[in-house]
Amino acid sequence: VFVNVCGEMLSDGQLNWGRVVSLFAFGSALAQHFHTSPQLSHLVPTVTKLLAEFVSLRLTPWIVKQGGW
User: Fold this and answer.
1) In degrees, to the nearest 5, what angle opens at C-alpha 31 toward C-alphas 66 and 2?
2) Positive or negative CA dihedral for 12, 14, 20, 26?
3) What is residue 67's three-state secondary structure?
4) What family is this (predicted)?
5) What is the pTM of this model?
């Protein structure tokens, strides 16, 4: 579901720095929510891994084209 939401955020092909930041904010908010819930805290590393993979696969070419971070 997390990766699907991230994909939907970029589905119109209009990638920009605001959307990149929004993806990190979404991942951070989700991880924080999981962290504060004893039944879900084990999912924090999964969110981190999925976000890193999404950025690596879907955003890195665009980030490099923009001159990097």
Assistant:
1) 65
2) negative
3) coil
4) Belongs to the Bcl-2 family.
5) 0.85
